[in-house]
Amino acid sequence: MSYQDLIVEVHDKVALIRLNRPKALNALNDNMMNELGEALYKFDADPAIGCIILTGSEKAFAAGADIAAMVDYTYPDTHRDNYIGRNWEHILRVRKPVIGAVAGFALGGGCELAMMCDFLIAADSAKFGQPEIKVGVPPGAGGTQRLPRAVGKAKAMDMLLTARTIDAAEAERIGLVSRVVPADKLIEEVLAVGKQIASMSTSVAIQIKDAVNRSFETTLSQGVSYERQLFQSAFGTPSQKEGMKAFLEKRLPNFEGL
Ligand code: CAA
């Protein structure tokens, strides 16, 4: 399938989706968000894929929602059409792991989209920020909710209220990204991480992702109880049999198709 605003590649069991509106620094418009949903659902349903990577260009992951497209929207337009709500959150319904690979600007809706990935690996060129206040709006795709959960209230309030942009080193220090790599190695490094994840049991990866995401929505005891059920039910799966036998037999496990 070909897309207007995305470039899509498959590397072994890893799908790589690149946001591609270079002239607008990957500003996120309706068509791109619709296409992103289509591509994500396609790879999520593809049994040959074990991990998905979402990235942008060297200059920008995405510089935010498309300001030129929304400048003349009215409140009736945004409310009636459920602007943002209608097509920005497909990524949250993807069951397989999604890694965000961020180089350059991840601002506003770009930072919010990045935070909807399961974890982020940043190039040393990455810059994160929620500058919506400078264009007269609050964040609209989860910035006031996911940023404090990721980095704590003090840093989130600082970034959201001042529109300050932080660099990759600070993003790693405060826990927004899991790793920082040289910009010219970003895709190579993230593909290696994606391949590592895809080489193991996709079912287990889906369970881990589901359980971790629940930890943000539930009490500790309910979350631990859910995890315990997943763990106990794992003993009815081929992943557990293969993984544990392979360890004891001192060989590599074969999780193909699991
Ligand atoms: N929407 C539309 N177009 C954008 C854009 C955006 N968010 N960000 C950049 N562009 C366009 C610019 O208009 C420019 O287009 P032209 O060449 O046609 O003039 C092109 O991309 C290159 O941008 P700059 O010339 O500004 O590049 P720069 O290197 O000087 O600056 C930047 C880069 C600091 C990222 C600057 O472009 C910028 O501040 N962009 C806007 C960031 C922003 O405010 N994002 C939040 C948007 S609101 C939002 O996202 C709401 C939400 O929560 C969902």
Automatic annotation (TrEMBL):
Keyword Lipid metabolism: yes
CDD domains: crotonase-like
InterPro entries for this protein: ClpP/crotonase-like_dom_sf, Enoyl-CoA_hyd/isom_CS, Enoyl-CoA_hydra/iso, Enoyl-CoA_hydra_C
EC number: 4.2.1.17
Chemical reaction(s) catalysed: a (3S)-3-hydroxyacyl-CoA = a (2E)-enoyl-CoA + H2O; a 4-saturated-(3S)-3-hydroxyacyl-CoA = a (3E)-enoyl-CoA + H2O
UniProt keywords, alphabetically: Fatty acid metabolism, Lipid metabolism, Lyase
Entries under PROSITE patterns matching the protein: ENOYL_COA_HYDRATASE
Membrane-crossing segments per the record: none
Keyword field contains Lipid metabolism: yes
Coiled-coil annotated residue ranges, if any: none
Gene Ontology molecular function: any one: enoyl-CoA hydratase activity
BP terms from Gene Ontology: fatty acid beta-oxidation
UniProt record similarity statement: Belongs to the enoyl-CoA hydratase/isomerase family.
Alphabetized NCBIfam families for the sequence: PRK05862.1
Function field: Could possibly oxidize fatty acids using specific components.
Descriptive protein name: enoyl-CoA hydratase
Lineage start: Bacteria, Pseudomonadati, Pseudomonadota, Betaproteobacteria, Burkholderiales
